[in-house]
Amino acid sequence: MPLFSYRGRNARGDLVTGTLEGADSGTIADQLFNSGVTPVDIRPAASAIAAPQVPDWLKRLTAPKISDVDLMLFSRQMHTLLKAGVPILRAMAGLQESTRNRTLAEVIGDLRVSLDAGRELSSALRRHPAVFSPFYVALVRVGEATGQLDAVFDRLFKYQEFEKEIRDRIKTAVRYPIIVMVVIGVAIGIVNFFVIPAFAKIFETSKVALPLLTRVLIATSDLFLNYWYILAAALVGAVVMFNLWVGTEAGRYSWDKAKLRIPLAGSIVLRATLARFARSMSLALHAGVPIVQTLTVVAQVAYNAYLAQRIEQMRDGVERGESILRTATVAGVFTPAVLQMIAVGEESGALDDLLGEVADMYEREVDYEIKNLAANIEPILTIALGILVLLLALGVFLPIWDLGRVMLLKK
């Protein structure tokens, strides 16, 4: 059997280390629990490792990403284990052994080491900002302070589930128009590279005067054929420049603001983002996070620089002593119905519940707009395709008709 080295804490809290022989790390953990030792770290003994060490850069390159589902399962399992009374270190050990995502297992292992060193869980989570958002860390900190860590993990699971549903709905909303635009782009490429050049050879030998539209189509086709590499380089350069621009603070702000004004899709993105804002704020207030800190962390998870700035303006107004209703009105992104609900919630002291209803309302609106998006886009795409086909038909077949008329006159 393989040999494992371990570190753990005995009943008095003293650190103990050693080696044990067992089938796997789970067996070693059971042996330690039975002997009154809570394992902190279990790994194969150095002598048992025969495989060559993989470089750190290669590990990072090949490491699987932590998905939303992985984080949801982590929150759900933490809630279940803590609610059942399992000590947090033992819960972490079980999750590290059971998770199938190697990257998440390494993160949980680091959390166990931090907890074993005496750090709070929120401080340990803060060491992994790419995995745990500031909002996640803030709620865990509140759960630690109030002794309701299991309830906080349950709320976080429900919030992450809501976030995933919102993202999936937005992806569903934009999938159809993206597919249609790609098909149109492929069709234009085929026409310019294959169809028009074939007809251009026929027109060239016929010596017939070509209409303006046909000459434009042939010139466009020649541009694609002769300078396709320049066009491709220009397209790649435009994409790179756009990404660099969006990477700047001013560029991201301008782009996030422009996204909200895109016809049809912009309103869906706006409502989905506001639903995320209302849901996260409701959750934070319900957990006991102070309003100023709530607005700070909610702005960080808005995923839209324009709306994040509006939320930060609300926070600044609240810090000056203004009411939430006034700051929300000045922000200029909420409908009168939502402002009325905020006013009622602020007056009644049930702002968290009313914000939950606001999130439900925005979610219903997102569902409705997504269901009607295809019906709204189809006429636009149909008209665009009709215009494209009309231009191609007139540009290609008008010279053919002229050529046929000339041949009839010759007869």
Core attributes:
411 residues, mainly alpha, 3-stranded antiparallel β-sheet, 17 helices, 3 strands, extended
Verbal overview:
With 411 residues, the protein is mostly helical. 76% of the residues lie in helices and 5% in strands. It is built from 17 helices and 3 strands. It has helices at residues 25-34, 56-62, 68-83, 88-98, 102-116, 121-126, 134-146, 149-206, 212-226, 228-247, 249-259, 265-287, 291-300, 305-319, 324-331, 336-348, 351-410; strands spanning 3-9, 15-21, 38-44. The protein has a 3-stranded antiparallel beta sheet. Helix 9 (212-226) packs across helix 17 (351-410) and helix 12 runs antiparallel to helix 13 (291-300). The longest helix has 60 residues, at 351-410. The radius of gyration is 31 Å and the shape is extended. It starts with a strand and ends with a helix.
